[in-house]
Each structure stands twice: as C-alpha cells, then as structure tokens.
Design goal:
The chain has 575 residues and is of the alpha/beta class. It has four domains: 11-206, P-loop containing nucleotide triphosphate hydrolases (Rossmann fold, 3-Layer(aba) Sandwich), CATH 3.40.50; 226-372, P-loop containing nucleotide triphosphate hydrolases (Rossmann fold); 374-435, no CATH class; 474-557, RRM (RNA recognition motif) domain (Alpha-Beta Plaits), CATH 3.30.70. It is built from 22 helices and 20 strands. A hairpin with a 4-residue loop joins strand 16 (507-512) and strand 17 (517-522). The longest helix is centred in the C-terminal third of the chain and has 19 residues, at 414-432. It starts with 10 loop residues before the first helix and ends in an 8-residue tail after the last helix. Residues 563-575 have a biased composition (Basic residues). Residues 232-376 form the Helicase C-terminal domain. Residues 2-30 form the DEAD-box RNA helicase Q domain. A motif (Q motif) lies at residues 2-30.
Amino acid sequence: MNTFTDIGISGDVLKGLSALGFEEPTPVQEQVIPLMLERQVDLVSLAQTGTGKTAAFGLPLIQLTNAQSRQTQGLILCPTRELCVQVSKDLEAFSRYVDGLKILAVYGGASIEPQIKALRKGVQIIVATPGRLNDLIRRNTVDISGVRYVVFDEADEMLQMGFQDELNAILAKTPAEKNTWLFSATMSREVTAIASKYMTDPVELTIGKRNAGAENVSHEYYMVHARDRYLALKRIVDNCPNNYSIIFCRTRAETNDVASKLIQDGYNADALHGDLSQVQRDQVMKKFRSKTLQILVATDVAARGLDVNDLTHVINYNLPDDNSGYTHRSGRTGRAGRAGTSIAIIHMKEHFKIREIERKLNKKFKQCRIPSGVEICKNQLVSMVDAIAKVKVDHEQIDPLYAEISEKLGSFDREELIKRIVSMEFNRFLEYYKNAPDLNVSNTRDTAAKRPGKRDRPQRGESAGGGFSSNHKFTRFFLNVGKRDGVLPQGLIGKINGVPGVGRIKVGKIEINRNSALLEADSRYAPQILDAFQHFKINGKSVSIEVAKENQGSTSRPPKPAATRHRKGRKPKTA
C-alpha cells in the first residue's frame, strides 16, 4: 500500500496530513495526485462522493501554489454554500503548516463585505459558488487573471443547477493558459459538455466503473400502494431503531409534508429545502451533523454539499426524475469505508425505473417486504434491551438513592420487574402495531388486485397521517407564551417528546397565538407533560402551563397535523 510520500506529497503539506492522522491515500488520490504533480494537464476524474476527492485535488493544489505570492493562483468552484465551506475548511486543515497560504470561501447567503475585505489582503486559493464569485467579478473586487488551476467540484450538479451563464462569465476572466480539473460522480451530458467547452485534451480517470454507485452501498426497494407510502416509510424507520438517515423527496411541498408528519408522530426529524432562510438552513444542518437530529427530510438541491460520513440509510420517498440523481443520493451513505443502505419506496407503476437504475449502476436491487408489526416490535425490543445492557451506572449518584428505589421495587420478582421496565418503554409500539395490516403489494397487477387486506381506509392503529386513530383521547394545555416569544410547533413537540421514560407522545392540534399557545397531547401523559414544562424558558421567558379551561381556545377535532398547518405556505423555522 502506498503512502502519501510515495505519491509525491512532501514538506509542510505532508506534515499537515500527519497531524490529521492521514496515513494511506484512497484509490482516487493514488491515481489523481501523482498525475497533477508531474504533468500540466486538464483532467476529468469520475469517482463517487465519499472517496476522498477533496484531498485528491486539494493536496496537489496546495503543494503547487506559491504561498509567497499574494496573487490568486487556484480557483475551486462548488455548486452550494455548504460544499464551498466544507472544501475550504478541508484545505485549511491540509495546509495548516504552510506559512503564508491564504484560502478563502466566497458564497451567497452571507455578507459580501467581509469577503471583499479578505480578497483585498491577498488570497492564493479561492473556493467559491458561481453566483457569488460572478457578483464579485461584476464589482471588480476580485482578480482571477493570474489563476493557474481551476477545479470544478461536483461539476454535474453545478450545471444541473443552472450555473452555465455564471461559469461562462467566470472563466472568461481566467487566462487561456491554465489547467482545469473536473471532478464528478457521473459522466452526464452536462459533464461531457463542460469538458469539451472548457478543457483541452483532458485525461479521464475513472475510479471504479463509470456512473456506478458506491461499492459499500446495498440497494433495496419496497413496493406499496401510493396511498401507503408514508405508512411504509414509518415502518422502515421503526424497523431500524438506530438509523441516521436522509429521506429524499421530489418537491419542497412534499418535503415539508413528510417532515411535518414525522415530527407530529414524534420522530426526531426536520426538513431541509430551498424555502428555508440561510440561518434556518444552518441550524438544521448543525443539528443533523451533531446527530441531535436523527432524520433529515430533504430535496435534492437542498442536500447538495451536505457532507456527513456515517449515514446508515438514504431513503428515496420518491425516485428522482433523472436516474443519475439516484447515484448522487445513494452516494451519501456508504462513505469512508462504511457500509450503507439505499432504499426506494415505489408503487407498481415505478417498477420499470428500478430496472433502469440497475442497468445504469450495474447494481442489483433487492426487493424487500415492508416489515410487519410483530417484526418491528421484536427489533425495537432487542434495540432497547441492548441499550439497557450498555448503560453505565453512575454509582456515586445512584447509591444514595438505592435504598428508596429498592424499597419501592423490592416486592417485584426479577421476571415481573423486567417485564415492567420493558413495558414502560415498549407499550407504545405494541399498541400502535396491534392488528397492523400488510402494506406489501406484488409487482403484478393481478396479484395486487387479489391481495388480502387491501383497503381504502386506514385500519385500527393507523391514521391517514400514520399515527393513532382519531378517537384517541387528548388533553388540551394552555401556555403563556406565543408567537412574540418565538414559539414554534416543532419546539413544543420536541419538548414533549423529551419526557424521559415515555418515548414518543402523540400530539394533536397546536394553536400559537400572539401571546399564548394551546396544544393537545395524549391524556395518559398529562402529568409528565405538565412536569416537563416546569422551570422551562423560551427565549428567556419562563413558561407556565396548565390544563386548558373550556373558554381557552378552540376544541375542534379531529386534529390536523400541527407542523403541516403551521409550516405550509411559508418558510419553516427551526426551534
């Protein structure tokens, strides 16, 4: 196995890699780096996301840059702000010990003045989104006339996002004599076009098979009736208790709808789409990267540039319109040598799309059955028992309380105590999936028409939104905080579902007024909900909560999913 020294990395760049713990190059780095360092060539490199492409172009770019000159010598173009920031941070880490080297990320959604100020001081490498860089060019505040290396990162996505005019304007300001390096996951028509237009006799390096999916990703699909898509999604998520996943939807409206239903049903989820402000987007991304958010529901455009290495699942709530989009989606999992699973939820008319993607990726999909309620309960139980077995006991805190705990629980024998502990956490799943119908359909119309249990309405235990049936008992609560205090539905739901030892609590209607709020929640947990809001503050204001009186707000039911009502038609906010 080669080392970074073997492929030409030396000096302070090598020192920076060693400090980061990098020891062996990935296959894409082994092929790309020596070529870039030894020859002045244009290059097209095709490799999946998560294979080390940033280091593949970043390390030679840093090593070839003259840090003693203030002139901009390297330009990296990225499709999104998130990718731009991530690439810039990576290059700064690689060049930690290179004296005098300045790297700057320029992107929209942030103040332009600090970026202009930094450019005036001198920057050798610029990492930019096309829109913001083009704006800086029009203002005559950036000089790229001395650029020696231009990198297109995620080139196919950049063109699919409509940046052709910006790219033309930017490259017109660069010298004719330069090297252009293009990195992409797929060799789409757009990438072929950019290679022929902006590059001279480029060398093509394909790591793995052209347009193939990541090797560490398994591909599965579940076939259901279109009306059962959300219920199937919930079962897939529930069947993998420790999943850390992105759910892809085709439109912003659908992204909002699915995220709202998941939040309403108590899942640790949020939405990411183009209607979010940059501040809201950053908040969601921060929560997801730190794993305080388990499930991210996103559109393709919004998820571009999201760099997370340990996703367990990518779930296609809808298949993308373009088959190459599936390659990008599935490449978000199975990164950095880890295994991942890409799941597609389809209906019968979409079966041909799976076959098309199989041919394109040269991968075989496994058709799986939507798990039954019994299967899900078993998996959840095993996961819960494993979690209990791994709990570390803080004896210093627990021992002084042990006598009182022992007195209260001493009357139960071992078997009864275990059953009670399990039931406390597990009754919700047992109740929800009791008599749960089979959601699976065959891929033949005749079999589907004869399928037992075919239904037009949700059955016992499942509502149209995927929660408990609408006759479930709710208690209404009145809170002394409202819109002026920054109260949001998802924040209240998150607080309720943070009640220890209960799990997800069903939430009904939420009304947020200017100075107050009303919410409905499962009556069985009213004492725990009241207790959860004690000593709680929202934006510095102490919250008081009480069971609502008859004249405090509306009592109309059945409840509509609160997150859907409050988020639809406007920009969602994060709590």
